[in-house]
């Protein structure tokens, strides 16, 4: 058990060192060779590298389920399952009514997408009653359910 912990700790330290020290220095050297970049551009690249390292540690080293990038802050990098699932250690998919806590009621969501033709949140078949997780998959690739029969060109987050 101690050996496994030591190996995991070593891997974490190596990844942190790469993300915090080695990779940003390599980026700076590359920047000097190519063109002058603004301080903001350099900071943004360094931030992306650090965030990639943090995500790698979360997803690979600790084996957490992937979380969509736009939900990382509310999920605390995948550690807050209770927010959507209602329990700390879920064994079943969440009740999609929990989506309304942040995104509003199905009526609210349909109103925000009313300019899309057809409105994916107010269909002629399901109205506003189709569960969110029919299309939106937090821990995997989202799929547009209506494409099973129709040829709409929507990108589902």
UniProtKB/TrEMBL annotation:
GO cellular component, one term: cell envelope
Taxonomy, superkingdom: Bacteria
Entries under SUPFAM superfamilies matching the protein: Multiheme cytochromes
Matching Pfam families: Cytochrom_c3_2
Keyword Metal-binding: yes
Keyword RNA-binding: no
One function term, GO molecular function aspect: metal ion binding
Gene3D superfamilies attached to this UniProt entry: Flavocytochrome C3, Chain A
Principal location class: other
InterPro entries from the UniProt entry: Multihaem_cyt_sf (IPR036280), Tetrahaem_cytochrome (IPR012286)
Record domain Tetrahaem cytochrome: where: 76-151
Keyword line: Electron transport, Heme, Iron, Metal-binding, Transport
Named cofactor requirement(s): heme c
Subcellular compartments: Cell envelope
CDD domains reported for this sequence: Cytochrom_C3
Protein's name in the database: Cytochrome c3
Organism this protein belongs to: Halodesulfovibrio aestuarii
Lineage, top ranks: Bacteria, Pseudomonadati, Thermodesulfobacteriota, Desulfovibrionia, Desulfovibrionales
């Amino acid at each position: 058990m101690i050996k496994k912990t030591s190996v995991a700790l070593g891997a974490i330290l190596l990844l942190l060192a790469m993300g915090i020290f080695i990779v940003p220095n390599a980026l700076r050297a590359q920047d000097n060779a190519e063109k002058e970049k603004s301080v903001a551009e350099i900071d943004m690249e360094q931030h992306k590298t650090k965030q990639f390292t943090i995500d790698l540690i979360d997803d690979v080293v600790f084996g957490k389920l992937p979380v969509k990038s736009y939900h990382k802050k509310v999920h605390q990098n995948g550690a807050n399952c209770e927010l959507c699932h209602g329990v700390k250690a879920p064994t079943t998919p969440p009740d999609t009514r929990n989506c309304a806590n942040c995104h509003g009621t199905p009526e609210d969501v349909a109103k925000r997408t009313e300019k899309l033709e057809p409105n994916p949140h107010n269909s002629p078949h399901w109205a506003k009653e189709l569960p969110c997780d029919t299309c939106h998959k937090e821990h995997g690739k989202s799929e547009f359910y209506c494409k099973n029969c129709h040829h709409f060109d929507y990108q589902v987050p």
